[in-house]
Design a protein that fits this description.
Layout (H helix, E strand, L loop, with lengths): L4 H9 L8 E2 L5 H11 L11 E7 L1 H17 L5 H8 L7 E7 L9 H21 L3 E5 L10 H4 L6 E11 L11 H4 L6
Antiparallel strand pairs: 1-5, 2-3, 3-5, 4-5
Helix pairs in contact: 2-5, 3-4
Bound molecules: flavin mononucleotide.
The site of flavin mononucleotide has 9 residues, from β4.
Length: 192
């Protein structure tokens, strides 16, 4: 079997870069569209495309981060100064943040679970597409992915869920290796 050595090596060493270690430049608008075309090419039972994208870039990231910080501070008035700074920069660490939104809903044939899994596949595919174009990426959720109170602010519609906020930018430094699970603990060959 011929081996695609470059792809194999990439998959064997793939690594996320923490968002705070990213800098400009991020992908251009054309590159973002290219990334999303690749990201959309995922297994999707029934061809439902049960996901969509919201792109946060430029000054809009600052506006939204400051609105998110207001909500966080209202909920926790005793918030420490360093946490306030974190809240004010939620969407500004990377030049581009792409929300992968799961629109999974009951369907006569396709289980909702499969639709949700497809959105997860989109997130990883988007992350890998970013790497293919030379960018670093990080799949994050954080509190505002689960807080329906801020969904209108972020453009997430009722009934939708956030599969991930994929942060994309240029790597400032290599993040180093991350401990991986012991494969022997995870694998069972049925019948043995
Ligand atoms: C659905 C999902 C949500 C995640 N959310 C966060 C998060 O909010 N904060 C965080 O530090 N890491 C989060 N992670 C982990 C990072 O995406 C990433 O997996 C980790 O930093 C290292 O992964 P790597 O194997 O790609 O290097 C999340 C991962 C997944 C799959």
């Amino acid at each position: 079997m011929p081996v695609n050595a470059a792809l194999k090596s990439y998959l064997e060493t793939r690594r996320s870069t923490p968002a705070f270690q990213m800098s400009e430049p991020g992908p251009s608008r054309d590159e973002i569209m290219e990334l999303l075309a690749i990201a959309s090419r995922v297994p999707d039972h029934g061809k439902l495309a049960p996901w969509r994208f919201i792109v946060y870039s430029g000054a809009e990231r600052e506006r939204l981060s400051s609105e998110l910080a207001k909500v966080a501070m209202a909920r926790n008035p005793a918030m420490a100064e360093d946490m306030i700074k974190v809240e004010k920069n939620r969407l500004t660490r990377a030049p581009v943040v792409i929300g992968v939104i799961s629109c999974a809903k009951p369907h006569v044939k396709i289980p909702e679970w499969e639709q949700v899994l497809s959105a997860g596949a989109v997130c990883l595919n988007l992350s890998m597409a970013a790497h293919a174009l030379g960018y670093a990426s990080n799949w994050l959720t954080e509190w505002f992915a689960f807080d329906e109170g801020v969904f209108p602010l972020l453009g997430v519609k009722p009934g939708e869920r956030v599969a991930g906020f994929i942060h994309i930018g240029t790597q400032k430094m290599h993040p180093g290796e991350r401990v991986r699970p012991e494969l022997a603990d995870l694998v069972t060959f049925s019948g043995e």
